[in-house]
Amino acid sequence: MPRYSRDISSSGNKRRIVIAAVSAVVVVGLAVGVFFGVQAYQESQERQQHEEEVQNVVEDETFYDGIIVQGVDLGGMTMAQARQALEPVEESLRGTYSVTVARGEQSWVITEADLDFTYNTEEVLQEAYQYGREGTDEERYTTVQALKEQPKEWEITVTMDDTGIGTKMQEIADSIDTDPVNATVASFDASTETFQFNEGVPGVKTDVEALTQLVQSALEDSGTGVVEVPVEEVPYEVSAADLQGVMKKLGTYSTVSTNTADGNHNMKLAMESINGVVVGPGETFSYNDATGDTTTSANGYRLATAFSNGRRVQEYGGGICQVSTTLYGAVLRSNMQIIERSNHMMPVGYCPLGQDATVSYGSLDFKFKNPTDYPVYIVGDMTGTRLTVTLYGYQSPSYDTIEVSSWQTGTLSQPEDTYEVNNSLAKNEIKLIMQGRNGQTAAAERTFYKDGKAVKTESLPSSRYRALATIYEVGPGTDTSQIVNGSIPGSTPSTPESSAPESSAPESSAPESSTPESSTPESSAPESSTPESSAPESSSSESPASSQGDPGVIITPPSVTEDEGDGTGETSPSQPPASEIPVG
Hints:
This protein has helices at about 1-60, 80-95, 120-130, 135-150, 160-175, 210-220, 240-245, 260-275, 285-290, 320-330, and strands spanning about 65-70, 70-75, 100-105, 105-110, 115-120, 150-155, 160, 185-190, 195-200, 205, 225-230, 230-235, 245-255, 280, 285, 305-310, 310-315, 335-340, 365-370, 375-385, 385-395, 400-410, 420, 430-435, 440-450, 455-465, 470-475, 495. The protein has about 575 residues and is an alpha+beta fold. The protein has a 4-stranded antiparallel sheet. The protein starts with a helix and ends in an 88-residue tail after the last strand. Keywords: Membrane, Transmembrane, Transmembrane helix.
């Protein structure tokens, strides 16, 4: 009985042990399962997180943390933000410069503000941005993660631009450089016929290339210093001695007035207006510009005898054409270039046929050009009734003197007589108002002489003097068809008018002397720009204008009211023939 009891107790213990063991195994299994389950979950979470981190790195469009350019951490910045962040850095990289460029008392300080610099910032930014963006996603992630422990740095390189230095040096050179100045005429004393001269001044030329190299070296070496400007002297071409040898009296010409006191007064005023005028190189002189308006008393001109509709009248400025003619004579003998010239309506008594020059303010002018490289001085004088004009300037050594000659080339037939009714006259009473005349054409030329030998001949403007009808006044009812030579046979003789025109020029067709009354040209002028045979005769056209020349020889036909000049027009070789200018 007791033995049986022991067996039952032993069996129960074993069972408990087995149950406990099984339970332990189950618990351990469960624990292991839980452990591995948790571990698998954690690994899944970690893997997912890593994948997300890798994806974030791959998709990040800003600079990665740890990317440093010139000491600036660009992490998290966009490209635009990075550029903006580096701008102050670029300015600091230029450094400071102070190089003085000196020339005598002048100086210029070159600082960094005057220089141009280039930076490789953009290149560096592109390279830094690409760091960690190559390879597989995992490789990129690894590279970016490493930046947290060991950042990557880049430096910007600054370069001085040579072009900017050269441009600045050229600006300095422009303020230093001067052109050489040839000797000039300082003054002219007409009473002694002497010139005073200003000596030439050498020019200065900067060696810009050498200056640029010197400044660049100073900037690169220490950034400071003084650089002397390398220059060379540029010699002038014409000295005072050179001018003294070529500046002299050119042409001179004289005429004698037979005008009235008021006409002489007008001549003197006109002469004073041209006296002392300086015609610069290449400039054109205008007679009308010099005298101003001669048609009123505003400039001091007086009423003097002129012709209008074939009658003597009083007009302002009468007589001034003798001054323009005298000037023309001097200009021809000074080798000036004739730009504009018109002959009178009729030949005048104070110069040879074909050598006159009429003017009419506002319509007809006398112009000439100074073709030389030096100034020309006009000296005009009227002493008593004698008018003289002399030109001073450059004379070419290719000749010594110029002689002017002119001659009649043809005759223009006198028109039929003209009759005007004058109610104050009786029937068959005839009054001579103006004696008609044949017209004339004339040619002219100037010949250049060297050592007494002719070296060149030039044609000058031709002239055409109008043929004029005889003008009579008759009483009412007079049968003009019965008039013969100014009278009706068997009737009261005609009454001559005291204002009949005076003959003033020879009708001979032989060449005329170029020098009226002691007006021999004393010298001539430069040959510089007047071509040989440059003045073919131009066809004349008549330009009626009022007479301001010699009364008694400048006449206007009845149908025309003269304005201010005396003439009709032959123009200069360089101008077209003057067209008829209707006046009144």
